[in-house]
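This part of the workshop introduces the protein records we will be handling. Getting from the letters to the tokens is the skill we practise here. The record below serves as our worked example for the rest of this section.

…
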Amino acid sequence: MIFDCDMGSRPETALALAVLYGLDGLNECRVVVVSSTRSNLSSAAYCEVVGRFYAGAVSGAFGSFSRTLPVGLLADGAMKDDTPMLTVPLSRKNAEGKPQYEHGIHKLVDTAVAPALVRNALTAQFDQNAIVVLAGPPTNLLQMLKLRDVPELVKAKVKHLVAADPKGAMALAAAGWPTPIYSISPSLGTQVVFPAEAVEKEFAWSTAHPVVDAYKAAKAMPYDSSTSELAAVLYAVRSADKAFALSEPVNGVRQVMLAPEAKDTLLKTFIELASAKPVPKQRFRRPVAADPAKAKPEPSKPAEPVKP
């Protein structure tokens, strides 16, 4: 999974990243790239904080370098202002007066050039085994398409792309993105809203949660959030989910809509995934069965993993 966003503009993006790591924890996908089009070090730092929260703090996956995967950042020379949903979590201190959430991004060289990072990640994937989620402007992906041989690489490696905003999907289609493109219908994001009550209640298993801190800092509580970006993540991984319906293609893009009477089911799924506890990373880990009684025993030899 490649997740390209503009972290810091909307609290919805933090929830979407939580859903993505929730799916990763179920072993339904593997996150290989997180990048931001928001030219701001705090944006990249927050993305790394969330990655650490869901991986390294539990499993020690950071190793001796104390870093997760590099975070891609758009460096266009015009650094954008900080926003409370970034600065509040990053400045939070623990009881000892130390940063509550550690990260390793303090200057531009601590990030990666986003278009090159995505391209390089694609080269390491099996054919048709990568999925791209766009949760912000398509700037990084449009720049990547201009790199040498990238359209052919994308065609070989990417199964499909899902954009939270139809405008981003149409821009990529017009630029010649060579694989199927889906966009989330704006009506889906407004029909299914993430409730403030769930942010207060369902994440209570942790006294310090970077997604909760960002959500509460973004606006005056209580407020509900759109779920277009959450839907983009979920559809990217679970395209066969019965909560979704598809339109006919228009200019090479199909819209993902809410299936009839699926509102409550979809909201429950969003809440469960976003508020899921971190799962220790293992090289071979079977997907978690929805019903533990139906879970199959571990094989004597691990199966070859196939993940988007």
